[in-house]
TrEMBL record:
UniProt protein name: Peptide ABC transporter ATP-binding protein
Pfam families: ABC_tran
Cited Gene3D superfamilies: P-loop containing nucleotide triphosphate hydrolases
InterPro entries (UniProt xref): AAA+_ATPase, ABC_ATPase_HisP-typ, ABC_transporter-like_ATP-bd, ABC_transporter-like_CS, MetN_ABC_transporter-like, P-loop_NTPase
SMART domains for the chain: AAA
Keyword set, alphabetical order: ATP-binding, Nucleotide-binding, Transport
Residue span, ABC transporter domain: 7-241
Gene Ontology MF terms: ABC-type amino acid transporter activity; ATP binding; ATP hydrolysis activity
Highest taxon of the lineage: Bacteria
PANTHER family: AMINO ACID IMPORT ATP-BINDING PROTEIN (PTHR43166), ARGININE TRANSPORT ATP-BINDING PROTEIN ARTM (PTHR43166:SF37)
């Protein structure tokens, strides 16, 4: 693996039975780089992200994150996973505990942080996502956008090296989308390394250092937002953009 990269993926393959979903993915992400992944539904974007923190086990290939090969069965995946934050379309907050308890759970259980230290940190991250005043409420009382911002705070509380986002705004009412994207843009500005699957082309244009176009289990095109959105080279990219823009 190459030390200049935070994440390096080499020739990644993943099949479900006969269905080959990832057909040899290569991707390298530098520290503080923001990579947006776009592409049609079913092209393998979620499967790819899930391989990155081994929610899925790839069939072959290598995934290096901070020098550890995630695809290697000998790697302590729980340790690695603590350094990878993941935010999903559906927020998966624990409904039976307060917002702040949602955030402190993993740092206390997995990082062995003291309760007081974890709570102080949680308030800091809630402040970052603009929800400090919601610390003690039940997540059920929050709007979708607020839940998603809590989910981001919860991921940040583990102090991850890399944040993965899988369509974090797709399930939100339109008026909630801006706040969540705003939080993500701030994170990017702060230097977080991020891989973001999104249909928000405006966000990709504004925030991404690089845009990757997925199609049929392969990366068809990889370039700056300007290259991908203004001068797409591959007909599949042109087709896709014509449909969504
Ligand atoms: P995307 O996120 O780009 O929409 P996915 O990665 O979700 O695409 O899905 C890619 C393909 O993998 C689809 O054909 C989907 O049906 C298949 N797939 C995804 N997850 C599973 C699974 N757990 N079992 C079987 N097939 C799956
Ligand atoms: Mg998906």
């Amino acid at each position: 693996m190459d030390k200049q990269y935070k994440v390096q993926v080499k020739d990644l393959h993943k099949s479900y039975g006969e269905n080959e979903v990832l057909k040899g993915i290569d991707l390298a992400v530098k520290p503080s780089e923001v990579v947006c992944m776009i592409g049609p539904s079913g092209s393998g974007k979620s499967t790819f992200l899930r391989c990155l923190n081994r929610l899925e086990v790839p069939n072959s290939g290598h995934i290096y994150i901070d020098g550890y090969d995630i695809a290697d069965p000998k790697t302590d995946i729980n340790l690695v996973r603590q350094n990878i934050g993941m935010v999903f379309q559906h927020f998966n907050l624990f409904p039976n505990m307060s917002v702040i308890d949602n955030i402190t759970l993993a740092p206390v259980e997995l990082k062995k942080m003291s309760k007081e230290e974890a709570q102080e940190a949680a308030l800091h991250y809630l402040d970052i996502v603009g929800l400090k005043e919601k610390a003690n409420v039940n997540p059920r009382t929050l709007s979708g956008g607020q839940k998603q911002r809590v989910a981001i705070a919860r991921a940040l509380a583990m102090k991850p090296d890399v944040m993965l986002f899988d369509e974090p705004t797709s399930a939100l009412d339109p008026e909630m989308v801006g706040d969540v994207l705003g939080v993500m843009q701030d994170l990017a500005k702060e230097g977080m390394t991020m891989i973001v699957v999104t249909h928000e082309m405006g966000f990709a244009k504004r925030v991404a250092d690089r845009v990757v176009f997925f199609h049929d289990g392969k990366i068809r095109e990889d370039g700056t937002p300007e290259q991908i959105f203004e001068h797409p080279q591959h007909p599949d990219t042109q087709n896709f953009l014509n449909k969504v823009l």
